[in-house]
Specification:
With 148 residues, this protein is an all-alpha fold. It has eight helices and no strands. Helix 1 packs across helix 2 (27-34) and helix 7 (106-128) crosses helix 8.
């Protein structure tokens, strides 16, 4: 039940985020949209930014899993195709990303995005560096270069 409720909260948040910036979304908006009690929201999340963090963490976890499958040969898609799919999603949900950056909490949003992209790029470099003698410092530098 808890995962169902968290999923409903996240879906409502994304729906509302496609319509307006984060700082214009309230907990009341979310609970009204997904039909739960306000206390239920606070049982799962402290605030709206924690919902955003949970969503981004799940997206990163999904991306890392796809990278692992690709590296192990289980995934038929290439890195390039996965990248294209990512850009397609960005295009389809452009208003969500736009509204994330239009919020008063822009600094917090940027920190979340930096953290999540860092995880993805570090993991991708780890996969690509297998069998190559490269120091941890060099791998972090390469990941940082491509992230920025």
């Amino acid at each position: 039940m808890a995962s169902f409720t968290k999923k409903a909260i996240c879906q409502s948040f994304i729906k509302l985020l496609s319509e307006r910036p984060i700082d214009k979304i309230t907990v009341k908006d979310i609970v009204d949209d997904c039909g739960i009690a306000r206390n239920t929201f606070y049982y799962h999340y402290q605030d709206i930014y924690q919902v955003l963090e949970d969503i981004l963490d799940q997206r990163v976890q999904d991306a890392v899993e796809r990278m692992k499958k690709e590296a192990a040969g289980w995934e038929k898609k290439s890195s390039e195709q996965n990248l294209r799919d990512g850009f397609k999603e960005l295009k389809e949900h452009g208003n969500v990303f736009y509204n994330m950056f239009q919020s008063a909490g822009e600094g917090e949003v940027r920190r979340y995005l930096l953290r999540t992209t860092t995880v993805c790029f570090n993991h991708q470099v780890e996969i690509r560096a297998q069998g190559i003698e490269a120091s941890e410092e060099d791998k972090k530098l390469i990941a940082s270069f491509f992230r920025n």
